[in-house]
Amino acid sequence: MTTSKNKIVSITPKADEKRTLSAQQKQFNTLTKKIDLQKQRLVEWQDTRPLYQQKMVESYEPLQEIFSQHKLAWVQLLDQHYDLSLFKKTDKIKIRHLICEVSEHLIADYKMDELKPLFNKYSEDDYDSLSEDRESSMAEMMKNLAKDMFDVDLGDDIDMTSPEMFQAHLHEKILEREEAEAQHRAGIARKKTKKQLEKEARLQEEEELASKSVREVYRKLVAVLHPDREPDPEEQKRKTELMQRVNIAYGKKDLLLLLALQLEIEQINPAELSLIADSRLKYFNKILKEQLAELEQETDEIEQMFKINLNIPSFQGLAPKQMMSMLARDIKDLEIDISDIKRELKAYQNPTSFKSWLKIYQIPRVEDSFY
């Protein structure tokens, strides 16, 4: 396991030996490298998540609030211009479209419900009726995404009012699915044939032997690190800190970290790893495979949550650094948008200037919204 304190645990033949590694030894080395990389990836996501949220709260959201207030001033200006005789039928169609588009955005994204009467004034449809239809469509889309990405059924009680509520609901459904799968496996086990039960018994025995391997490493560490047996205060403090790391590793069934700690305190040396029998290494590898799968699942869940919030397809790659770059770009774009709308608000206070702009403005076609 690679951390700031530990090197990757790997098996290498002694310098004076010409033998090659066995299949179990090669698999051990492959798994340790994969686990090390996966741990780094998980830590990067875990470290990035609070940084992303902090940047959102400190930089992006304040700019959003400023932009929304300028947008509010913009839609109010459009409302004032609408009844002026300077604007003809074609102009008014465009103004109505702009008012509905902007006010709908402000109501939906910034909770400016006070704009609903203004939207209804210029729209052929009632806002609340439209909103119900769209929320229903959005809920259906999110149900399909959850089914495709996490194999869970969100049901009909989806709360789409906030990403946090949706994430909590999704997490609850994932836990329910995992529990149902466990119960299903237990039910199947009760119906298995004698041959299947014998095979399962062998697998269970292997699982117990694998767990025993971890316990053996743990006990060896405890035997030399237990602080209560140390009379020297400084050494007792050092052993206490090491035992905390040992207990955390054992609690997580982190075999690699336990082995790394053995190497760190020189309870074993790297050459001794090559002397571990394949029969024992087989159980080590079983534990490592399980650990790798758990790390991959934990990382994937964090990544998929961000993809849902950012409307990124599940099949598209996403790295923490890439996500932070996207946020930095969004902040820059928002600063430009604020600068632009401030300039436009000042210029279009003059109805004649606004009319000149309306002449070149084209209402987007419906199909354009899909591109």
Quick overview of this protein structure:
With 371 residues, this protein is mainly α. The protein has helices spanning 23-82, 89-110, 116-122, 127-150, 163-190, 194-225, 233-251, 255-264, 270-273, 278-309, 320-347, 351-360. It starts with 22 loop residues before the first helix and ends in an 11-residue tail after the last helix.
Structural description of this entry:
The protein has 371 residues and is mostly helical. It has a domain at 199-275. The protein contains twelve helices and no strands. It has helices at 23-82, 89-110, 116-122, 127-150, 163-190, 194-225, 233-251, 255-264, 270-273, 278-309, 320-347, 351-360.
Q: Characteristics of this structure?
A:
371 residues, 0% strand, mainly alpha, single chain
Estimated share of beta-strand residues: under 5%
Low-confidence stretches: none
The run of helices and strands is HHHHHHHHHHHH
Residue share in helix: over 70%
Structural class category? mainly alpha
Main sheet properties: none
Global morphology: elongated
SS summary, helix count: 12
